[in-house]
Design brief:
Number of domains: 1
Strand order of the largest sheet: 1-2
Structural class: mainly alpha
Radius of gyration: 19 Å
Low-confidence stretches: 1-10, 18-22
Helix content: 55-70%
Order of helices and strands: EEHHHHHHHHH
């Protein structure tokens, strides 16, 4: 396969179809603004709800700046168009708190909001813009390397060693409800996996894919990481969680770019989330699942 056709090798300029090797600061600025808006809306807003207006303001200004700078909003290749799809998803998520809550009303509310954050940009890309930029490629039909296969097994091991220590020693497990009821435990398990799936569908398959049309992989990956980690902070991964959520978000983006396989990165994520579920349940009920080291 020619190098320029490999998603992992180089970004493709949305206008020319050629490789993007550099991006000017003026084009990068609105994309940074979109990521910054997510940081305000997701990471800062839980402690200061009044920042919701500021976050939306940063988002709107960044999108307007992208349209003015690029001046190709009506063009299929416009930076403003692609950032707008990301911004719509961010705005949808921001309309509700995603802090962990397994009560039925919250379970349904969060599920609907996260579903719309993925679905709306996808539908707009297909039905309104008549493109196929936002896709969810399940597998790439390319043989995985030994390193990629090994990583699938390494992630659960790292989760086993890291997560109980993090949740219990930092007290972060208190960001999740104390659950003993079977129905709530089942909802919690479903919720953990649903959020993990949302992470890959929105941050990787949507945000990263749209950013890659305009910026090299390393820049696009850093931009999506800020959005990804900010969301995880609101979800409950606080205290010193960014020490592992930042590398995880960057690795997931890089692996998707390399493998072009949603199935692969989602498998990695859900294996990690299985340990998240077990570690949080154990942290709240120390006599349950007494198999962890911390």
């Amino acid at each position: 396969m020619p190098e320029l056709q490999r998603f992992a090798v180089t970004a493709l300029d949305a206008r020319t179809g050629g490789p993007v090797r550099t991006s000017s600061a003026i084009r990068l600025a609105p994309a940074i603004g979109v990521s910054l808006s997510a940081f305000v809306l997701f990471a800062l807003r839980p402690a200061a709800p009044q920042l919701h207006t500021l976050g939306l303001g940063i988002l709107v200004v960044s999108l307007l700046a992208a349209i003015l700078i690029d001046r190709r909003f009506l063009d299929d290749s416009g930076l403003g168009r692609d950032l707008s799809l990301i911004g719509i998803g961010i705005a949808i998520v921001s309309i509700t708190s995603v802090e962990a809550d397994v009560a039925w009303p919250s379970f349904v509310r969060i599920g609907v909001v996260l579903g719309l954050a993925v679905l709306v940009p996808y539908v707009l890309d297909r039905a309104l813009l008549r493109r196929r930029v936002v896709t969810f490629p399940w597998r790439s039909h390319e043989k995985k390397t030994r390193l990629e296969i090994g990583y699938v097994f390494l992630v659960p091991l790292l989760g086993y060693l890291l997560l109980p220590f993090y949740f219990i020693r930092s007290g972060a497990y208190l960001n999740w409800p104390h659950i003993t009821d079977l129905s709530e435990l089942l909802r919690f398990f479903v919720g953990v996996n649903a959020v993990g799936t949302f992470d890959e569908l929105f941050f990787i398959c949507t945000c990263l894919a749209l950013l890659r049309r305009h910026f090299p992989l390393w820049q696009a990956n850093l931009l999506q990481m800020v959005i990804f980690v900010s969301f995880l902070w609101e979800l409950g991964y606080r205290e010193w969680a960014p020490l592992f959520t930042i590398p995880f978000a960057l690795l997931q983006g890089w692996l998707f770019a390399k493998t072009r396989s949603l199935g692969y990165v989602l498998t990695v994520h859900l294996l990690f989330d299985a340990l998240v579920f077990l570690a949080i349940v154990h942290a709240h009920n120390r006599d349950w699942i007494p198999v962890f080291l911390y």
